[in-house]
C-alpha cells in the first residue's frame, strides 16, 4: 500500500467520528501524492504524514458564564495547536453552536498549509466554542469572552499562539478577550490579531480576507486572459468575508448580485448595495430581510432544504464566503450548466469534495480556501509585525502588501502544480506549495 493510503487509513481509524477533519485530510493527502511518491522513503522514515495529521496538542475546557437572567450557562471551549514548525500557532476562534472538535481540527489542519502559503512565519492552529452569539446582549457576550479567555490565556502568547476572528468572532469579541488577557497576564502584547486601531490593530485587517480573495481571483482570471470588469458574481454569506469581497469586486468593476445568511438569501440584479449591507449586518446585526425591505430591486428568499440558494443564478464568478460544505455537487452542476468561469473560496472548505472534482473536470477555474482566503491571516501576520516593531503602517502600505502576497500565492500555487505535472489544478498546487515549506522545517528540526 502507498504511504499516503496507509496514513489515510490510520487517520480514518483514529478519528472515525470526525467527518470534517477526515474530509480536510483526505483532500490534502490525496493531492500530495506526486510529492510524497517522489520522496516516499525520506517522509516514511521521518513519519512526516503521521506527524502532520496529529495536532501538537488539543485543549478543551469548560466556559461557565452568567446570562442576563442570572442563570449560569456552560459552553465548551477549544484550542487546537496543530503545527508550529514555521512559526507560532496562528488561526481564528469560531463561535457558533455547530462547533465541535472535528470542525476545529479541520480548520486547524487547513491553517497549517494556508499560513505556509502566505510566505510569512506562522504555524497552524484554531479554536472556538459552541457558544451562540446570536441574540445575546453585549454584557452576555463580554461575560462569555472573559470566561473563555480566563482559561485560554494559559496556553497562548505573542510568540506562542496568536488567535484571531472567525465566524461569530469580530472586533467586539476580540476587544473583550484582549482586555481579559491583559488583566490576567498584566502584559500588553500582540496576543490576538484583529484588534481595534487605537490599541494595536492593523489598518486593512477588517477588509483583508474579502479583498485578498478578489486580488487572488483577479490574478487567476488575468492569467487566463479574462477581464474581471463586467463579470457577475454569486456571493454567499453576509459576514466579514462576504462584505469585503463584495466591496472589492465592485471596485474592480465586477457585479455581485447575491449574498446570504443562515436563514435566507438575497438576489439583487442591480448589484448588492454594500453600504446598506454593512448597515444591516455590521451596525444593526440584523437579518437580510431588513436589506430587502430597504432595497426595492432585491428579492429575499427564505432558506429551504434542497434548494440551490445563491448558486442557482447565471453568474460568471462564484465566491462562497459563509461556511463549510455550503456548495455541493448539485450546486456545482447548476453553476456549470449556467457557464460559471471560476469558483474561488472565501470560506474554509465551502465546496464538498465531489463538487470540487466536478467543477475541476468541467473546466471551471477552482481555487480552494487555503490559497484564496489566506489574505486574512496574512494581514494578521502583518499586524504581528507592526506590534513587534511598535509601529502602525498606513492603509495603503498594508493593502499594497496584501495585494502582493495574494499575487505571489497565485504564482506559487500555479508553479507548484506545473512542477508536479498537474497544471491548472490549484488545489494540488496550494497543498504542495504549503506542504513543502512545512516539511523542510520539520525535517530540519528533528523528531518533535
Ligand atoms: P462571520 O461570522 O462574519 O459571517 C459568517 C456568515 O456566514 C454569516 O452571514 C452567517 O450567517 C453565515 N453562516 C455561518 N454559519 C452558517 C451556517 N452553518 N449555515 C449558513 N450560513 C452560515 O464570519 P466570517 O465572514 O469571518 O467567516 C466566513 C467564512 O470565512 C468562514 O468559513 C471562516 O472560517 C472563513 N474565513 C474567515 C476569515 C476572517 O478573517 N474572518 C479568514 C479566512 C477564512 P448568520 O449570521 O445568519 O449566521
Ligand atoms: O481562517 C482563517 O484564516 C481566519 N479565520 C483568520 C485567522 C487569523 O489568524 O487571522
Topology, element by element:
Layout: H1 3-14, H2 19-31, H3 33-38, H4 40-45, H5 48-52, E1 57-66, E2 72-83, E3 89-95, H6 101-117, E4 123-129, H7 138-152, E5 161-164, H8 171-185, H9 205-223, E6 232-235, H10 240-251, E7 255-256, E8 258-260, E9 264-267, H11 274-283, H12 288-293, E10 299-302, E11 317-319, H13 329-337, E12 342-344, H14 353-361, E13 365-367, H15 369-372, H16 374-389, H17 395-419, H18 426-444
Parallel strand pairs: 3-4, 3-5, 6-7, 6-11, 11-12, 12-13
Antiparallel strand pairs: 1-2, 2-4, 8-9, 9-10
This protein binds NADPH dihydro-nicotinamide-adenine-dinucleotide phosphate and (2Z)-2-iminopentanedioic acid.
Radius of gyration: 21 Å
Helix content: 40-55%
Shape: globular
Which structural class do you get from the secondary structure elements? alpha/beta
Major β-sheet profile? 5 strands, mixed
Mean pLDDT: 98
Describe the protein in words:
This protein is of the alpha/beta class and 448 residues long. It has helices spanning 3-14, 19-31, 33-38, 40-45, 48-52, 101-117, 138-152, 171-185, 205-223, 240-251, 274-283, 288-293, 329-337, 353-361, 369-372, 374-389, 395-419, 426-444; strands at 57-66, 72-83, 89-95, 123-129, 161-164, 232-235, 255-256, 258-260, 264-267, 299-302, 317-319, 342-344, 365-367. It binds NADPH dihydro-nicotinamide-adenine-dinucleotide phosphate and (2Z)-2-iminopentanedioic acid (2IT).
